[in-house]
Amino acid sequence: MKGKLGGILVLGLLMMGCASNRSVTSGRSTVDYNSYNEDLSSVRPVYRPTSVSSGKVTTPIPTTTPVPTARKPENRKPAAPIEAMHINRRLDMVLDTIAAQNRSIRYAPGFRIQVYVGTQRQEVDAMRQLITQNFPELSPYLSYNQPTYRLKIGDFMRRMDAERYYALVKRMIDSAQLQPDKVDIRRSLSIK
Questions:
Q1: pLDDT < 50 positions in the chain
Q2: DSSP character string of 86-109
Q3: What is the greatest pairwise CA distance in the chain?
Q4: Selection from 161, 113, 163, 165 nearest residue 140 by Cα
Q5: Which residues pair with 150 in a beta bridge?
Q6: Amino acid 57: pLDDT
Q7: Helix (H) / strand (E) containing 189
Q8: What pLDDT, on a 0 to 100 scale, did the predictor assign at position 143?
Q9: Contact (Cβ atoms closer than 8 angstroms) between residue 167 and residue 177
Q10: CA-to-CA distance for 152 and 46, rounded, in angstroms?
Q11: What is the DSSP string of 18-60?
Q12: Could you tell me which residues are beta bridge partners of residue 29?
């Protein structure tokens, strides 16, 4: 049974898969698709040579005048690639404006460690002094929203850096928390 089915399958594939280079005949007409040829020289635009004598580069103007149908193939060497300096200048200008915009950005989303939340001014000052002595590279930020004082430290752009300092601060202060906040970009770059 397998032999008969395999033989029929192979015979069917051979009949379907064999293609010839014959012309296709349908009904009354015969069409040979391999010998298609059409002359498009009458619709091609013709460009006049550009003049470079005045120093200005002029763009060619297309015309729709018909060209003689018989063209000789030209055997010229391709010209050396011309560097487009005007594109480089425009690209430099765009990159300079992007760099200026990036320099003007001062704050970005990041992380800070909240060290103290409470109503006692003396405790906040003591906590700030403790942090400044142990971590001089971290900037303290004190905010007061009546009657609550909040002391946050650090300007971390990445959570990984914030967690490294958070582990050290947590040993000293049990109530410390890591919180997302808006941070100063320049100060975050100075933290090692």
A1: none
A2: HHHHHHHHHHHHHHHHHHH--EEE
A3: 106
A4: 113
A5: 117, 143
A6: 55
A7: helix 185-190
A8: 93
A9: no
A10: 73
A11: ----PPEEETTEEE-GGG-----TTTS-EEPPPP-TTS-----
A12: 26
pLDDT score recorded for residue 10: 66
Q: Which two tokens stand for residue 155?
A: 């300007």
d(CA 44, CA 72): 16
- Rounded to whole angstroms, the Cα distance separating 117 from 143 reads 10
**Helix 159-172 × helix 121-134 angle, to 10°:** 110
Return the amino acid letter for 104: S
Residue 86 confidence (pLDDT): 72
- Predicted pLDDT of residue 178: 94
Query: Is-above-0.70 flag for pTM?
Result: no
Q: Give the H/E segment covering residue 16.
A: helix 2-17
SS3 112: strand
Burial class (CB in 10 A: 0-12, 13-18, 19+), 106: exposed
| DSSP label at residue 10 | H
Q: Rounded distance, CA 119 to CA 89, Å? A: 59
Q: How many angstroms separate the Cα of 142 from the Cα of each of 14, 56, 149, 150?
A: 85, 63, 7, 6
CA 32 to chain centre: 49
Length of the chain: 192
Residues 143, 156, 108, CA angle at the centre, nearest 5°?
A: 80
- Per-residue pLDDT, 131: 92
Residue owning tokens 């030209």: 74
